[in-house]
Write a structure and sequence with these properties.
Residues 58-255 form the BD-FAE-like domain. The chain is of the alpha/beta class. The chain has nine helices and eight strands. The protein has a single domain, classed as Rossmann fold. It is globular. It starts with 5 loop residues before the first helix and ends with a helix.
Length: 294
Amino acid sequence: MQKFDFSIFLKRLASYSFFIGILIISSCSSNDDPIPDGPLPALELFDNSYGQDARQVMDVFLPAGRSLENTPIMIYIHGGAWIDGSKEEFLQFKTAFEQALPDFAFVAINYRLFDFITNSNRFPTQENDVIAAVQHVLANRVSWNVSDELYLAGASAGGHLALLHAYKHQEVGDIQAVMALFPPTDLTSLYDFNFLTQSGLTALLNGSPQTNPDAYFQSSPVNFIKPSSPPTAFFHGTVDTVVPISQSDLLAAKLQEEGVIYEYQIFEGQGHGFNPATYAAIISDISAFIGALD
């Protein structure tokens, strides 16, 4: 019988372990290296969670070649009267925004919606969700390789939420500029627009301007405009039967009074929602507005 040589066994074991170690290192280095060899590819992250509720999610669109220094972020907030809608609204504008602002990353958020049946998620639930979403974006910007230069945009109720955050919570994210399409801006004056407006706002804010005046004050963007408020671009149609153009007129007057940079465009004969050509022109104008701020 051949005698077992323990020293040979140890040498073979060492060689085998070294070979396996080389294989492991080689297989990991190509996938786990935090420093890429070239520009980062484009990346899309869907239903990224920023809270515990199923509605507290966002879609993140990161451009190719992004960096911590040179990739601003635009957060888009959908409309729907605070009771409907979803982040998928952004998809109809996504291509146009990416062409107009090729260096930007884009984030489209959902937020908790008010429920007329249960009266759950009354305001300021939606306001607080925007705060949480902005904080989540900032907390993840290094791993996403984007800068801390934030912009807000939204339509209708989303425009209202974008303006409210930019003026009332400017310190959360240091918003550089805000863009809004046909936004509610003063919920106290909006209350008497029609019966539907009265019913909706009474439920959302748990009372009328007479019975719950603080809720209306706290949820109206115009009440928080000051000289240091971020530059604002907003757009409204003259025959809007959902949010009257007087809401944007009030916004313009207050911005002018406080000396805030703004651009206000009025579209004759258009209502609550614009035609495709107008949307394309607006996105081009938003790009120019942002570019002029540099």
